[in-house]
Design goal:
heterodimer; A: mainly beta; six-stranded mixed β-sheet; B: mainly beta; seven-stranded mixed β-sheet; four-stranded antiparallel β-sheet; globular
């Protein structure tokens, strides 16, 4: 079976940096995704890692260590609009999602 | 592009009634996914299609749930009869199979309340 773990909730202040961790246990690894979901809206794609290392895209970066079953999403220069849930998911087409980390950014 | 289009956006029905949720994928995408999201269980894959053919329906809760994809531009998820525990947000997503990052694009969802 598959298991995805991530913290339920995190808080941070505007302008800060926050790291959201995700650990996974799978029988076979196919790729690690991060999605952002604002309250009442659809999930939207943020990043995809299939090889170890850091992928940077603007203020957001995602890291993967396949040997440790570990990923993190790094958000820099936090803005109020970054308040949302961040979903970690593993798979190829058949994605298994974590329950999400709700991030609250305060002024 | 208009993105993935789902209808209705909200559905309120009574226990025992049939519910049909509709999805139009992004034009040109050849994979379609149905998900259910609840506070308790998060986002769960129910079923997905490649080229209109169901590939994996292991996430479908029980026989009350069925999904069809009669053509490349339309899919339905039907619940018959509906029960209060089916209350959730149902998302449809589409994907261009073979694209490098395997990104799934989600519709706005249907919020279902079964009374």
């Amino acid at each position: 079976g598959q298991n995805i773990d991530q913290p339920t909730e995190m808080t941070a202040t505007e302008g800060a940096i926050v790291q959201i961790n995700c650990t996974y246990q799978t029988s076979g690894f196919n790729g690690l995704f991060w999605y952002q979901q604002h309250a009442g809206e659809a999930p939207t794609f943020l990043s995809y890692n299939v090889l170890d290392g850091l992928e940077e895209k603007g203020r957001f970066s995602s890291f993967l260590s396949r040997s440790k079953g570990y990923s993190y999403l790094l958000l820099k220069e936090l803005q109020m609009k970054d308040s949302a849930s961040y979903l970690c998911a593993e798979g190829f087409q058949k994605l298994v999602f974590g329950t999400g980390t709700r991030l609250l950014v305060s002024p | 592009d208009a993105g993935v289009i789902q209808s209705p956006r909200h559905e309120v029905t009574e226990m025992g009634q049939e519910v049909t949720l509709r999805c139009k994928p992004i034009s040109g995408h050849n994979s379609l996914f149905w998900y259910r999201q609840t506070m308790m269980r998060g986002l769960e894959l129910l079923i997905y299609f490649n080229n209109n053919v169901p590939i994996d329906d292991s996430g479908m809760p029980e026989d009350r749930f069925s999904a069809k994809m009669p053509n490349a531009s339309f899919s339905t998820l039907k619940i018959q009869p509906s029960e209060p525990r089916d209350s959730a947000v149902y998302f449809c997503a589409s994907q261009l199979q073979g694209e490098a990052k395997n990104i799934q694009y989600f519709g706005a969802g249907t919020r279902l309340s079964v009374l």
